[in-house]
Design a protein that fits this description.
Blueprint (H helix, E strand, L loop, with lengths): L13 E5 L7 H9 L3 E6 L11 E4 L5 H14 L7 E3 L6 H11 L6 H8 L1 H10 L7 E4 L2 H10 L4 E5 L9 E3 L2 H14 L14 E5 L4 E10 L2 E10 L11 E4 L5 H18 L4 E10 L2 E8 L7 H9 L3 H10 L15 E7 L5 E8 L9 E6 L6 E2 L10 E7 L2 H12 L2 E7 L18 H19 L9 E6 L8 H19 L3 E6 L3 H10 L4 E4 L11 H10 L9 H8 L1 H10 L7 E4 L14 E5 L13 E2 L2 H14 L4 E5 L4 E8 L7 E2 L3 E4 L13 H5 L9 E3 L7 H17 L5 E8 L5 E8 L8 H8 L4 H17 L6
Helix pairs in contact: 2-3, 3-4, 4-5, 12-22, 13-22, 15-16
């Protein structure tokens, strides 16, 4: 590859970015786009970065074989897109970026080199082998290894995962008891849920504690030559967990110490074989000299970019891209004094809890001394500090004309930022908790806290801020082998996802058809509310209520009715008993579990025989209406033996069918939408006047003669009122939530008979509820937002009993 003089514009180049990272990395994609680059992103899914991305390659970046194959397939299918290099700004994908560089002969860090740096144990072994200072260290797999460490190492010690990042699970140990207890805790609880970088491995390393001043060395390295470096000082971490508290640039260490640090870093990278890249090197300088801690083979995270650019005017993002593209970077000469002195502070809390107050004076952003101010947490969010998690609320970077001035400015700015995190107690929503040791109940507390925070966030959200919620759409996917009705269910999920996105919601789809996977995905997700459209679990339409039981257990708020309501609505026998108990008019009925069960002989023919469980008119056909005992027996055999369901037998009501669609969860917010009337009289005489499965889902043109009036024409006002009141009573006694539909038959004398309650009925755009709402001027997407609003209101009115 030909090298330019370093001033070549980048708008003729295409770069592959491996993983967007979280939304905190937005400034990187913005800068890449501002440089004029064409950006191809390899990521598991499209996300917040879409406005900056020219092409997506969608693959699981944790599956390196799949990801590399996806890149190869993209390049073969898009010959006009000439990817010239690849890089990552995300620690999780340093190894994948190296594999891609190896596979496609891009400039980068070879995989065998990257693995030595990513694995902290291998890095320590490498340093020891090549005469670089390194502490005594050992992998730990069992108690025998712990005993060896006790006998041969000096306390204090540090325990850490070999593939960790961001100080997650890095803990200082003062004695033997802490060593054994902490090791057992990590073995049981170390998780990629806390630190995704651990996907590469969860081995545990113990090493002797290194005393001294901790620094970050940011290095621009091209063709083995250091083109630029910068050293920043880290404030003292919150031990024993090594949580970062802040940094300052330039370093205040003596020039001699700084020279020793850069010489040590250069020697380490040279011996490792690192030739190209923007490297974030961590080290300590103490009375025994300089010691390498980690070599992160990507640009440092969070405020590192702005620190270096603010102090020295060097853009590390631009440097990283030029190195990856092979664009020559001349040696960058640092001035004696920086452009600015910068100091930053992370805003941390002493304990895990729920953020209940956050005051950041808006004028702070206009303060000329404030370089950056970022806060990621909002009221109602969980704040997880060690050992439950490794989070901070945000950070601020402040400048000054010298080090002391910058520190004074930081103290002034920080004094104007106020927040309150209330400790969490599993026995109350907001309370106090204490632990005998720092690890006891940590996992339980974390789980309870994150769930409690989700509910607390929902309770505190205003209608204006509702659009900021993360919505999970829980539904069913489709495949080629499914029947038409199953594909229709999947289509509803697609419609809802697309419509909510047009309203600005962050939407994630969860497929309830694969039940074990969806439970795992829901547990890991950070959605604020689930829009529940699930109709099937593990390909069964008879367990509709089970998924809401899971949501209840996980304390994930959701739209629609509760497990009990869904189960009662789906069980037609229990539903009939509820109607009878509350004196709600319904056709006379009986039920059977086998063809030989006795049916009440006082029931008058014709009768209709239905499966007692299930939805979507499954099991209802033209033979379901029976006129004598022989036909009754035939249908009982069909339902109880062939379908394997109890049978509901009820007197058939000849007449029109009315659907009453209702929004709301209690009488304070109930809204009855315009009624819908179905008229069957135009069907041929041999067709029963019912909604069979074929009528709903088949292609028989005869059923096109069914007339649907929405709203009904020429019906008495008294009948309309009566239907509305009966429907509201039915909806209310079964405790239906957010939205539902009551189906009622009306005989020739205008007598109403409740057929069933559809809790969580179809929300297909042409279904009854959306069609009724449209009559009132409520379009489809606004109806979905209204259902979300009703669900939020319902949770806000619930007692706070997490």
């Amino acid at each position: 590859m030909n090298y330019s003089n370093g001033n070549e514009p980048l708008n003729n180049h295409t770069i592959l970015v491996v993983n967007t990272g979280s939304a905190k990395k937005k400034f990187i994609l913005q800068r890449l786009k501002a440089l004029g680059l064409k950006i191809v992103v390899l990521n598991k899914e499209k996300n917040w970065a879409e406005p900056f991305v020219d092409h997506w390659i969608l693959a699981d970046t944790f599956n390196h074989v799949e990801a590399v194959a996806a890149v190869k397939a993209f390049m073969a299918a898009n010959l006009d897109v000439k990817i010239e290099g690849a890089l990552t700004f995300w620690e999780d994908d340093v190894l994948l970026a190296s594999k891609i560089a190896d596979k496609f002969n891009f400039i980068g860090i070879p995989f065998n080199v990257a693995k030595k740096a990513r694995n902290k144990f291998l890095f320590r072994e490498f340093c020891a082998l090549h005469g670089l200072k390194t502490p005594a260290h050992s992998l730990v797999k069992n108690n025998e290894d712990l005993n060896y460490i006790v006998q041969n190492f000096k306390f204090p010690l540090v325990i850490k995962p070999t593939y960790g990042s961001s100080s997650a699970y890095v803990i200082k140990l003062e004695n033997q008891e802490e060593l054994f207890n902490t090791y057992q805790y990590l073995k049981k609880n170390i998780s990629t849920d806390v630190e995704s970088a651990l996907t590469d491995g969860v081995e545990i390393l113990v090493e002797e504690y290194i005393d001294g001043d901790e620094v970050d060395i940011d290095i621009v390295l091209q063709n083995g030559k250091i083109k630029f470096f910068s050293i920043s000082d880290n404030d003292k971490t919150n031990e024993p967990f090594f949580v970062e508290t802040g940094q300052s640039i330039p370093s205040g260490l003596p020039e001699r110490t700084q020279s020793e640090l850069i010489e040590m870093a250069e020697e380490t990278l040279e011996k490792m074989g690192v030739q190209n890249g923007v490297i974030h090197f961590e080290a300590k300088a103490g009375k025994n000299g300089t010691v390498p801690i980690e070599a992160n083979l990507r640009m440092g995270g969070d405020e590192v970019h702005s620190f270096v650019k603010g102090a020295w005017g060097v853009d590390l993002i631009e440097c990283a891209v030029k190195i990856a593209l092979g664009v020559h970077i001349p040696k960058i000469h640092r001035p004696v004094s920086p452009r600015k002195y910068l100091t930053g502070k992370y805003f941390l809390n002493d304990n895990s809890g729920i953020l209940v107050k956050m005051d950041v004076v808006e004028d702070l952003k206009k303060n000329p001394n404030v370089e950056e101010i970022h806060f990621f947490k909002e009221i109602g969010d969980a704040i997880l500090v060690p050992p439950e998690g490794y989070e901070f609320l945000g950070w601020v970077v402040v400048s000054g004309y010298n080090r002391l001035d910058a520190q004074d400015n930081l103290r002034e700015i920080a004094s104007k930022i106020h927040f309150d995190v209330v400790k969490f107690d599993s026995d109350s929503a907001l309370g106090r908790t204490s632990r005998k040791s720092r690890f006891s109940s940590a996992v339980l507390n974390k789980t309870l806290l994150t769930r409690a925070a989700r509910l607390e966030k929902l309770r505190s959200v205003s209608k204006d801020n509702q659009g900021k919620l993360k919505i999970g759409v829980l539904g069913n996917s489709s495949d080629e082998n499914q029947e038409s009705w199953e594909k229709s269910l999947a289509k509803v999920s697609e419609e809802v996802v697309a419509s909510l996105k047009t309203k600005g919601y962050q939407v994630t789809f969860f497929d309830s058809s694969d039940f074990p996977k969806v439970v795992t995905d829901l547990k890991k997700s950070d959605v604020d509310l689930v829009f529940n459209l699930a109709e099937k679990i593990n390909q069964s339409a008879l367990a509709k209520s089970d998924i809401t039981s899971v949501l209840e257990a996980l304390q994930i708020p959701y739209t629609g009715s509760s497990p009990l309501t869904l189960a009662l609505a789906q069980d037609k026998i229990k539903f009939k008993k509820m109607l009878a108990f509350h004196n709600i008019p319904t056709a006379r009925w009986d039920y059977a579990y086998s063809p030989d069960d006795d049916i009440d002989e006082s029931l008058r023919y014709p009768l209709i025989v239905k499966p007692a469980g299930g939805d979507h008119s499954l099991g209802i056909n033209n033979q379901s209406v029976v006129n004598n005992k022989e036909e009754l027996k035939t249908q009982l055999v069909f339902v109880t033996e062939r379908l394997g369901s109890p049978a509901l037998v009820e007197e058939y009501i000849e007449g029109d069918e009315y659907d009453v669609s209702i929004l709301g969860s209690n009488f304070d917010d109930f809204e009855v939408l315009p009624l819908s009337r179905t008229i069957f009289k135009n069907l041929p005489v041999e067709y029963k006047n019912i909604y069979t499965f074929e009528a709903k889902w088949g292609t028989n043109p005869i059923y096109n003669d069914i007339i649907v009036q929405q709203p009904p024409k020429n019906i008495p006002k008294k009948l309309e009122t009566l239907l509305t009141e009966i429907a509201l009573d039915t909806y209310n006694i079964l405790d239906c939530q957010d939205y539902g539909r009551v189906d009622i038959r009306v005989d020739q004398n205008d007598n109403p008979y409740v057929l069933e309650l559809n809790a969580n009925p179809s929300l297909a755009p042409d279904a009854r509820i959306p069609s009724s709402a449209k009559i009132l001027g409520i379009d489809y997407s606004d109806l979905l937002v209204e259902i979300i609003t009703l669900a939020i209101k319902r949770y806000q009115q619930k007692p706070k009993n997490f």
